[in-house]
Amino acid sequence: MTTVSKPARKGFDIKALFNRPQKNYVHPYFGGLVLGVVLFLSLFLTGNGLGASGAVSRLDTAIIDLIAPQHVDQTPYLLKLAGGDKNPLDDWTVVIFFGALIGGFTSGLINGRFKFEINKGPQISNRTRLMMAFIGGTIFVYGARMARGCTSGQALTGGATLSAGSWAIMFAIFGGAYLLAYFVRKLWL
Amino acid sequence: MNFPLEILNNVSTANPWIYLVFGVIGFGFGYALEMSGFGNSKKLSAQFYLRDLTVLKVMFTAIVVAMVLTFGAVGLGLLNFNLVYVNPTYLSSGILGGFIMGIGFILGGFCPGTSVVSASTGKIDGMVFLAGGFFGAFLFGETERFFTNWWNTSGYFGRVTLMDVFGVDTGVVVVGVVLMALFMFWGAEQLEAIFGKRDLSKEPKLRPVGAAALFSVAVVVLLLGTPTLEQKWMRLAPVKEPLLAAREVQVTPAEVYTTMFDNKLITVLVDVRTEAEYNLYHINGAINIPAAQIATVLPDLQARYSPRTVYILMSNDETAATEAWKVLTAGAIANVYILEGGINNWLTFFGNDDPEIVPLTSILDDDQLRFTFPAALGARYRSAYPDPQKYEELEFEPKIKLQLQRDKSGGGCG
Q1: Which of A176, B241, B267, B315 is least crowded, fewest Cβ atoms below 10 Å from its Cβ?
Q2: What is the pTM of this model?
Q3: Alpha carbon A120 to chain centroid distance?
């Protein structure tokens, strides 16, 4: 690591921190190895794997619980998360979610990849990209809730613990994406 | 030490440091995703145009690494696999949900985990995807009621692993999955060379070494095998044997009887005697699982786990019930107790109701019925279901303490 502040300047230079030289991503097999070890430690120490979409639905439920607690008590799905005095945020998936937020931020910062930008294919406008991102996010998490877990909670965690259902879901995710990829190639290529 | 750590089960403000453990795991999760390039939607979507198969390589490397380490730890007896969350199989909603996720993936360019690290590194499209995700979760909560029955029952198989599906040992599946992954990596690199114009000669030379190392660990897992129930019990014995000796799990007939009427609990009475003895006489509501068969019902009990279920095992005295207790304990079933003194003690306590059940005078071997019955009436004796009014105020020292084994309601994404 190089030092971030020039000797002439006093104190901590926050700007330089965000303008570090951009480094390349690590090799996929090395990244996978690190991710695998993290997943193993999670399973080994806690008996639970990794997850992301569960926290999203819990944060949602917490907001609904603030605005309309009666509605939570009348909706069977929300009732399970936040019925009565249950706090939907008192769950390990929520902690993992915020941990991942900080972990991703840290890695991005150290490797000079923190940058406000929109990543998109060359043929579409920023507006189209953001619209598709929103629609894609809505569809993805709807499907993740239906399948009781997303790529991390099902494919990754269930894949490693050899859950039969998780392997079926993993192939369904890739199948769905590959089937549609050709028809939406304008978005990315 | 037995893993996973029991103390990490109860995430609550009483133990704030537990949050730190999960926070560090989350940190590692986010860090690993970002450094692999998962914060960039272009890199992620390139997977589906076969130009850059980073997603597949990272995901499958992570899966096989975590898999060999996990089942290696199980084989070495460090980790109790029964306490590791295995996503229950809901085939219909899983496959449909998976397809929907795939559609969301190619349209939005992310999955939830990757959008988190994307958003945290300043990518606007990641933030918007995440916002869409919040809306999607909201929509699901609002629409689930229209198909709640289908969602909760269709294609439900419970805790099923690939080992159960193929009927082979864990090690065989582990080696098979590793071989499949290595083949996929090879294929992915060929595809990248064709569609992504990647120069494979510039790839690190260490890859075959890594592949060989992975394969060797998988073979070690195969050779280790999975511990038998007996081995599991041997490991637990130093902790659990004292409970038996201190008679902390032997519950008096009075407490068992009172527990049967406790609406907060699901009391399951398990009679481990032979079917003939069970037919002769058993407590009302008891199910008959002969001691020799108790191990075969373990997967079923694990799948039906509820934190409110209390199991009471009973034999004529205590010997067979104690053996059954060891089996269930080794199988990581929580809240298992033994009827103190067995059926004989129950009859001594409640038998006044049935004058026709006569105690034997001769001294018998251990764990034999010490009463004679006029007929095999099963639970149709009065003492098999003692009058609640008559025994309303029984006194006993309560021993049953509910132990929350694990919140199985939510795994990775509960």
Answers
A1: B241
A2: 0.83
A3: 18
